Amino acid sequence: MTRLIRELAKLPGIGEKTAARLAFHLLRSDRSLADGLADALRTLKEQTRFCRTCYGLTETDPCPICTDAERAADVICVVEEPADLIAIERSRGFRGRYHVLQGALSPLDGVGPEDLRIGGLLQRLRGDVVHEVILATNPTVEGEATALYLARLIKPLGVRVTRIAHGIPMGGDVEYADVVTLGRALDGRRDM
Fold it and tell me: Among candidates 74, 75, 45, which has minimal Cα distance to 59?
């Protein structure tokens, strides 16, 4: 039990108390829950890899998104991490292709352009197929620096570069939004 708690506590966002609750829950549950969890973890590590085209997570290479003929091949949405790709897919608002950088520029953490999947992106843009790249990096200092760096690399290739809008979330109140978010919301306004 102690070993399981220690292993669970290594997961992000899981402290020792939560790890203990999870371990005791697994102990009290049917064996099928533990077996299913163990099988899912084993399958994850054995069969999941990065797509050689977009660097998203997949069990087949290239991934189903890259091989889907129904998706627009002329628009690529660039994200930092596979979790960002999954979030955009859940929105069902984008029907193009993706490129996952596997991080963001962060000189303080020793992450430079050579540490990201930028070369693969530029290689994809060298043909005449892609007409727009949507930069969907996070609205952090690192994400903004990455977006600016990519825009400077991509624009000379004759490809349109756009940035996702930033603003007030649905259900949010204007009075509680920070000044940067409000400024970006105003800058990104559109006609109705």
Answer: 45
